[in-house]
Amino acid sequence: MTLSRIFSGITGLTVLYSFLALPTSCGEQEKITYYQLKLPCTTTLKVDPQTGVDIVDAYVCKNTKVTWVANDHTFVVFFKHTCPFGPSGCKHIDNQHPTAGPIVSDTFTIYDYGIVVDGTSIDPHIIGGGGN
Fold first, then answer.
1. Domain segments of the chain as ranges
2. Model's pTM, two decimal places?
3. Cis before residue 102, ω within 30 degrees of 0?
4. Which of 23, 37, 58, 97 sits a CA distance of 20 to 30 A from 77?
5. pLDDT of residue 95
6. What is the Cα–Cα distance from 56 to 126, expressed in whole angstroms?
7. Which residues are bridge partners to 75 per DSSP?
8. How far apart are CA 20 and CA 25, in angstroms?
9. Could you name the CATH architecture of 44-128?
10. What is the CA angle 44-75-84, rounded to 5?
11. H or E stretch including 75?
């Protein structure tokens, strides 16, 4: 009787270990897929009293200038932190001096700026740098 219990215990452990040895999908990962996003370089932003500009999150390529088109509005652009157009490139951007640039950064960065259109302050972004 003892011998049959030993064989029964060994058989049970063997079955248990065989189940543990089966492959599972928990450790397997699917193949990672990458996509390339191509965006047009923004060179002109049309001033809008509702949203500030027509393209609120504008991608501006390195070595590209940007011109804000007034559309009969009075506006002033100011950058809150870092200026994408170099140390002196963000000093006077308004309806009298609407062109700034080129972007000098090699790093892909989001530049937070404000634009005051006809007395109303709005917060769009310029996404720039990092390539061509």
1. 44-128
2. 0.68
3. yes
4. 37
5. 92
6. 8
7. 117
8. 13
9. Sandwich (2.60)
10. 55
11. strand 75-79
